[in-house]
Amino acid sequence: MTRRTKIYEGKAKILFEGPDPGTIITYFKDDATAFNAEKKGTLNGKGVINNHISEYVMTALSNIGVENHFIERTSMREQLVKAVEIIPVEVIVRNIAAGSICKRLGIAEGTPLREPLVEYCYKSDEFGDPVISEEHALNFGWATGEELDEMMHNALRVNDFMSGLFHAIGIKLVDFKLEFGRLYEGEECRVILADEISPDGCRLWDLKTGEKLDKDRFRRDLGGEMEAYQEVARRLGILPEADVTKIAEHRKKDS
Ligand code: TMP
Ligand code: ASP
User: Atom 1 of ligand 1 has which residue's CA nearest to it?
Assistant: First the structure.
């Protein structure tokens, strides 16, 4: 890796100072974690695939007017993004019950929800990203009412758009998590979509077989994680000629 200033290292990405003020280079790692990093692993080539999938989805969202931090992909594992101040409230949108909502509320996995359900979580590894209400976010000053409205509105737009996008390639969008950030421009500050959109933070089920094509393969020790991520990329028409071994070769070489 070339010498440059690291700003932050998270579980799946490293952030470096970008070439211009207000920009950041995001490096997508192959590291995978689950259950607040109690379970750790490496999925060779995951970073390359997530970088490309996130580029694809964020670009498509920009095109329908959902403003986000993505500027351009700069290499197999890196993308240039706008620097934002991440709001510590994660937005989860669910179309079908799966994962933590089943455990918390005793709902059977696979139950379709009457309408998209939006949940907020406090972004904190220490406390295991607990579900919170709007009141918590307001009371503790994590986000303002306007910011939460903006986040909810955009999360539902992202859900409508992505549900259609994935349905068209034979995939059910079960749920996903979004993060938003504050973009400061002069005196102005607005909330835009940030982080990544990839099978790490979405549940994606094959429409016909119900096969899981997301990080649940890792969380639940199902195996075939990379084949699943690659299948999502292939169906989206990105990295068409790539295979997992070739992608994995970029692990050390790239950037
Ligand atoms: P959950 O069922 O564990 O609450 O997760 C719902 C969706 O949000 C699932 O697609 C995984 C994603 N998610 C993350 O990517 N990171 C997180 O920290 C959390 C809480 C959820
Ligand atoms: N990304 C979170 C973690 O590591 C939660 C998850 O995706 O399961 O721990």
Answer: 100
